[in-house]
Design brief:
This protein is 32% helix and 24% strand. By secondary structure, the protein is of the alpha/beta class. The radius of gyration is 22 Å and the shape is globular. The model has no long low-confidence stretch (mean pLDDT 95).
């Protein structure tokens, strides 16, 4: 037995929405017969694609075998056959779109950040709670295999007392003059809601707080390393948004976290993003795919020497955690959890309240950078 559930997908032709939310998540869910509910029923997404470019929408819908698309968001929100609204548009438009969807009585699910400013993010969260709708925000890194294993280690008590956390994130984004850039040009324009801090600090917020502990205070330095980039039309433009950030965060319990995130760094590490945790009983380092551990009693005696090229192989004594379950795309997995939450009322803690905390962390990081000082992070701002 199968039931349908209507989902408005706004920003359907955008890079992330098209690839992760449609091609890797909702379309495969449809193809595989839907999300299985606790009563045995299968829930099949009925998709309405929304965007600004009719030709691009029609081509995408035809390619994916989706019948319905529209350039009229108001008409889509008025359609009672579609109780869920997903927002994958640019950050600058998101808060207003979410408020419109909430006013229309839709359950909402969206990319992050949920707004440019913390006050707007908390206002959206409050509106959702007042309306009594279900709401969720994409926090995909928590279900990436490596990060999921890191979280399981923390829950199991593997680390003992956690001492410190390190996050090394991102990669070199081509400027656009010699190679096609991997990210859209709006990411590097402040007026369009771009910037590394606003883009990635909400990710690091949920990674740190879900896996380790809440953030209590921070100091952050942002940078605009590359000031000229080339847009989608091959034209040079001034890149005035921060493209890197360097932060120290103090977490609850005296834990210290270091975050380095840059679109101007060439990768020589195990993955695009690495997160390491050191504790009294052991350490672990995870990328998006894999996680390695080094327990206390398996820790080698570190040595250095100016007379030998490499007296210790610091990679060889780490144990790769095995795969115990088949991998499911992180975006798809969270979609399935959210759809079950809407229909069955199951808990979904990765919501607009939590995401507003991520926007707040980004805003306070920018404040710290511009004021050149430590700032406290309120534990609850509503």
């Amino acid at each position: 037995m199968a039931d349908r559930i209507g989902i408005i997908v706004n920003g359907a032709t955008g890079r992330m929405t098209k690839n992760q939310h449609l091609i890797n998540s909702l379309v495969p869910i449809r193809r595989d017969g839907g999300v299985k509910l606790s009563n045995g029923t299968h829930l099949i997404p009925d998709l309405l694609l929304v965007g600004r470019n009719a030709d691009a929408l029609e081509a995408l819908a035809d390619h994916l075998g989706i019948e319905k698309w529209s350039t009229d968001l108001d008409a889509a929100l008025a359609d009672q056959q579609y109780p869920i609204y997903f927002d994958g548009v640019t950050t600058k438009l998101r808060a207003n779109n979410l408020l419109r969807a909430i006013k229309a009585g839709k359950h909402v699910y969206c990319e992050k950040p949920t707004a440019e400013k913390a006050a707007d993010a908390f206002a959206v969260a409050n509106a959702a709670k007042a309306a009594g709708i279900r709401h969720g925000v994409v926090q995909d890194k928590l279900w990436a295999p490596g990060m999921f294993k890191l979280g399981q280690l923390a829950k199991s008590g593997f680390f003992g007392k956690i001492l410190s956390v390190r996050i090394d994130g991102c990669y070199w984004v081509f400027e656009g003059d010699l190679q096609r850039p991997q990210r859209p040009s709006w990411n590097y324009r402040a007026k369009d809601g771009g910037g590394m801090i606003l883009d990635m600090m909400p990710h690091y917020h949920y990674m740190i707080e879900d896996i380790v502990a809440p953030v209590e205070r921070l100091v952050c330095l942002g940078a605009n390393h590359i000031e000229t980039r080339w847009d989608e039309a091959g034209q040079p433009y001034r890149s005035d948004a921060d493209d890197a950030c360097y932060a120290i965060l103090q977490l609850k319990g005296g834990i210290v976290a270091q975050v380095m995130s840059s679109w101007c760094i060439r990768v020589r590490r195990d993955d695009i993003i690495n997160m390491a945790i050191d504790g009294t009983n052991g350490s672990a380092i995870a990328g998006l795919k894999n996680c390695w551990i080094q327990p206390r009693l398996a820790t080698p005696k570190a040595q250095w020497s100016l007379d030998a090229a490499a007296p210790v192989d610091f990679y060889s004594d780490w144990q790769l955690l095995p795969e115990t379950d088949p991998y499911v795309n992180a975006f798809r997995l969270e979609w399935e959890l959210f759809l079950r939450a809407v229909v069955e009322g199951s808990p979904f803690p990765w919501n607009l309240d939590v995401a507003a905390g991520g926007v707040q962390l980004a805003e306070l990081s920018e404040q710290s950078w511009h004021e050149g000082r430590w700032v406290d992070v309120p534990q609850k701002t509503m």
